[in-house]
Design brief:
The complex is a heterodimer of chains A (about 170) and B (about 325).
Chain A: E1 10-15, H1 19-28, E2 37-42, H2 50-58, E3 63-68, H3 79-97, E4 104-108, H4 114-131, H5 145-167
Parallel strand pairs in A: 1-2, 1-3, 3-4
Helix pairs in contact in A: 1-4
Chain B: E1 6-12, H1 18-24, H2 30-36, E2 37-41, H3 50-55, E3 61-67, E4 70-72, H4 73-85, E5 86-92, H5 94-98, H6 100-103, H7 110-120, E6 135-138, E7 141-144, E8 148-153, E9 163-165, H8 172-184, E10 192-193, H9 200-203, H10 249-252, H11 270-279, H12 287-297, H13 301-305
Parallel strand pairs in B: 1-2, 1-3, 3-5, 5-9, 9-10
Antiparallel strand pairs in B: 4-8, 6-7
Classes of the chains: A alpha/beta (about 170), B alpha/beta (about 325).
Amino acid sequence: MSDQQFEPKIVGFLCNWCSYRAADLAGTARIPYAQNVRIIRVMCSGRVDPTFVLMALSQGADGVLIAGCHPGECHYIEQNYKAMRRYELLMHALRPFGIEPERVRLVWASAAEGQQLAEAIDKMVADIRKLGPLKWQDNWNENGERLEALEAIAKEHQEAMEVCSHGH
Amino acid sequence: MATEKGKLAIYWAASCGGCEISLLAINEKILEVDKAFDIVMWPCAADGKVHDIEKMADKSIDVCLFNGGIRTSEQEYMARLLRAKSKVLVAFGSCAGEGCIPGLGNVSNREEMFELNYLKCPGLDNPKGVVPQTETEVPEGKLHLPLFYDTLKTLDQTVEVDYFLPGCPPEADRIWDAIVAILEGKLPPAHSVIGENSTVCDSCKRVRSEKKIKSFKRTWQIIPDPEQCLLEQGLLCCGPATRAGCGALCPEVNSPCIGCYGPTDGVHDFGARLMSAVASVIDSQDPDEIRRIIEEGIPDPIGTFYRFSLAKSLLRRSRQNGHHATPATQEATL
């Protein structure tokens, strides 16, 4: 049965100073949580360019987690506020693309909050499991008629040329 | 310069024709182009038939300036044909490079567009509900129309492109620069943009003071100060993310940059780049207030951040209707 279950692929950008340490703490404290997040350590949540999120979603991720220090506690003073503003802008832009808000999450987790981070990850995985796979690049597929249509044009032109050369 | 004339092709696909006008806006210099090249195809301005191109040997056209995105099978056929026959293929203008305005159709698909344009659009007179078909039987035989794609693709998503000339349309001076570069063989590395690699902000004369804003304004809501940065006055100006080359013409006349020159080198997604820049000017640290500022001030995020670049963006299009992934079995998670 577990073979059948959809396992979401989630890319997680965790800040070096708080959230990555929270994940570390969850590990050393042996707090179990879903294994679906591929964690990438960044120096600060403010380093997370919306490009990273779009790149992940367009290349097969089912969701993206951004985690950083609590507001007011950023190692770089206020860069997590920048992350907050970018996140809100990105979420506003993702809506008309048809990407559900549950797929992209911003959470705050201090170095002491291994438990909270683990719970946030479990919640996210459960939410995305309900939504199903994103499979973004499937949106780019033209239906099967495309190659046939191209061949039809080539054939038609070929026939027209034959008619032309017979005419002369 | 070579003693023998080169061969030049100019073609258009899903575009408006503005690129052709811009090309003619090099004025009398077009005679220099004529001196250097035989124009083998230019549907807008000169003769030249598809079957003549088909008969040519591969790589026998020296330069092809291709404007327009790829929306139909016929356009894809022509892109492939001209790629095969041309030594140098230039994606000319924003449509070929990034999809541009025709690429905004990627928020929809063929079914929706046909329904709106042929069946639902007010003022239509189509009592039989005729919608374009790829094949139609008539007494004389079968008629064919090209297949209309769900998703507009850029030229380089279709065939290999040697150079890009950005802009909607490219400025005549930049076109001339590119033509000179081609004639003199002083082209940048393959697959690169022929143009400057700074931003519109760098060529804009307005004063920036790192002022932050509490609300975005639409252009009709304020009369902007002529000296101060437009973004700092609340107008969503795309200058920080947009490649220079236009001479900052729009901000010069109190109108915010809308991003027609596309991103600078190395940027994967114009909209993401712009979002990063815009996030920096919002003066709030409260998520609810930030959300309010954004939702009230940016009613059309795709049209704002991806006006010219949706087809080239990382996501390329909105989610297709009916594509919704089948939900996984839920009992396993309970």
